[in-house]
Amino acid sequence: MILFFMVSYFNVQKLCHKIIITKCQLKLEINLNLCNIRIRKITPMKKILITLVTVLLTIAAYGQAAGNDTIQAIVIDEQQEKPPFKDKLYLGGNLGLMFGTYTNIIVAPALGIRWSKRFNSEISIEYNYTKDTRYDSDYSYNQYGGRVSTQFFVIPQIFAHAEFAGLSMEQYYTTGKERHFVPFLYLGGGFRQNIGGRSSVSFRIMFDVLNNEYSPYSPGTPVYSVGFGIGL
Q: Which residue has the higher pLDDT, 109 or 13?
C-alpha cells in the first residue's frame, strides 16, 4: 500500500512537471509568435519609407540651416561690397594754364561715378580760352562744350579710355572768324596714380578717330591729357 502510494506520488510529480514545461513552452511559443507578428508588421517597404523620410528630414533641416547661413553671408558681403551711392561719386576734371605769347587756359570740371572697382564714367563741361600774339595780328579764341567718358581698368593702375566730346570752336579764315560745332571721339588709354585717400591723378594719351573737317588735329595726332579725381 505504501509502495503504491509512493509510486503514485512520483507519477503525479512527473505529471506536474510536464504540465509546467508544457505551459512554459506555450508561453515561449506565444511570445515568439507575438514577436513574429510585430516584426512582420514592419515590412521591407515600410522600412525603406521610414529610412527615406528620416534622411529627407535630416537633409531639409541641414539645408535650412546652411541656407540661412548662406543668405546671411551674402547679405553681409553685399553690405560690405556695396558702398553708399555718395561714396561712388567723385569730383575730377582737367585744368590747364599756359601764359606768354601763346596763352591757353582750360577749365573742365567733371563729375564721375565708380560703377565698380574696374569701371567708371565721367561727365564734364569745358571752357578753353586761347590768345596767340606771335604774329602781326593777335588771335583769340573762346571754345566751350562738354564731354562724356568712360574708363575700364585692366589692372588698378592701367586703364582703357573712350571719350566723346562736342565743342563749339572758333576758327580764323581769310574772310574772318567763324564758329563751328566740332565732334570728337577719343580712344586710348592711360595711367592712374593714387595720391592719398580717395584722390588720384591720371595721365592719358588718346587719338581722335572721327577726324571732323573742322578738327584742329591732323589724322593720327596723339592728344595728351592730365586729369585728377577727388572722392566726395
A: 109
34 HSE (CA, 13 A, CB side): 6
**Can you give the pLDDT at residue 231?**
75
Mean pLDDT of 187-194: 92
pTM metric for this prediction = 0.60
Kindly give the pairing relationship between strand 102-114 and strand 176-196: unpaired
Over range 40-60, report the average pLDDT: 62
